[in-house]
Amino acid sequence: MAQQVNPPRGMRDFLPDEKARREAILAIIRRTYRAHGFDEIETPVVEDADRLHAGLGGDNEKLAFAVMRRGLTVDDLREAASPLALADLGLRFDLTVPLARFVATHRAELPPVFRAIQIAPVWRAERPQKGRYRQFVQCDIDIVGEAGALAEVELLTASVAAIRALGIAESTIRVNDRRILTAMLAHFGFAAEEADGVLVTVDKLDKVGPAGVAAELRDRGATPSAVDALVAFLEREVTQAADFGADAIRAALPEGLSTPAIDELAAIGAAVNAAVGAQAVAYDPWLVRGMGYYTGAIFEVVHPSLGYSFGGGGRYDGMIGRFLGDDVPAVGFSLGFERLVDLVDLPASTGDAPVALVHAADADPSIVVAVRDRLVADGRRVRLLKRPKRLAAALDALAASGVGEWVAVDSDTDPSAVEIRAIG
Question: Could you tell me which residues come within 8 angstroms of residue 150 by beta carbon, excluding any fewer than 6 positions away?
Answer without folding.
Answer: none
